[in-house]
Amino acid sequence: MTETKSNAGQLRISEAWDRYSLLESLIRRRFARAMALDGGPLTHSSEHQPQALTIEEEAALAFAACGITGPVLAELPFQSGEEPESGSGNIMTHLVGRTVASGDAVHSGIMFLINDEGAWMLKRPQDFPRGQIAELARSAREHEFVELYQQSRVRVADRRVDIPRELPFVSAFNKWSANLPGTSYFLPVGELSAFYINVLLTAFSHEVSISCWMTTITSSRLRLEGSPAPKGDISTRI
């Protein structure tokens, strides 16, 4: 896409946002082109041909799904202050945020997008060179969504990838509308290995390990004296 076309597309989507009424969208029934809902009192078939999203529309949705927004607040104690063993701010894995929440800023969720032209993976913050993050955040503030989209997506297929229309891949109530021609299908994938490793490293940190050790010693003494162990005793869970 040329710069002129990109600027024109950005202007079109900005104008659309200005004219779009949230209240009107909430009270109006929306039905996608070329789709057919068969079964029950809401049965309806569209008379139109499929109409794919423009790249400007798709780029805006991609940013809303997983766009990079810039530095995170990270408002945590990275060292113990007046309260002993109150640090643990190092649980933060990254200091870059996205439009979608992520525990400890691990950003383990990966978004894939499928449309008529193929399938793409949308990059996470850690998939970019560190020196590029500030420019990506600036582009987000300037609403340069098409440029961000083109930089973020990595093609993984040159055609629409089909998905099994059965559980657990597609819910029964979504079979009629999921991943049809003309649609943009967003597929989030949660990869939790990094998150669990981060939790384990935190559990082995100085502050947390000392707390676990003290709780175990205290509960052992209580049992020796014939008193019941406190509820939620960590030693009973280890």
Explain this structure.
A hairpin with a 2-residue loop joins strand 5 (109-115) and strand 6. With 238 residues, the protein is an alpha+beta fold. Helices cover 34% and strands 14% of the residues. The protein has two domains: 3-204, no CATH class; 205-238.
- Contiguous helical run count: 7
Principal-axes shape call: elongated
In what order do the strands lie side by side in the largest sheet? 7-6-5-8
Gyration radius, rounded = 25 Å
Query: Structural class given helices, strands, pairing?
Result: alpha+beta
| Portion in beta strands | 5-15%
Percentage of residues in helical conformation: 25-40%
Please tell me the overall pLDDT.
Answer: 81
| Distance N to C terminus | 57 Å
Uncertain segments: 1-6, 232-238
- Biggest pleated sheet: 4 strands, antiparallel
Task: Please give the structural blueprint.
Layout (H helix, E strand, L loop, with lengths): L2 H17 L2 H6 L8 E2 L6 E2 L9 H12 L1 E4 L24 E3 L10 E7 L2 E5 L10 H9 L3 H8 E5 L27 E6 L2 H11 L2 H19 L14
Antiparallel strand pairs: 1-2, 3-4, 5-6, 5-8, 6-7
Helix pairs in contact: 3-5
Keywords:
238 residues, alpha+beta, 2 domains, four-stranded antiparallel beta sheet, 34% helix
Summarize the entry for a quick read.
This protein has helices at residues 3-19, 22-27, 55-66, 133-141, 145-152, 193-203, 206-224, and strands at 36-37, 44-45, 68-71, 96-98, 109-115, 118-122, 153-157, 185-190. It is an alpha+beta fold.
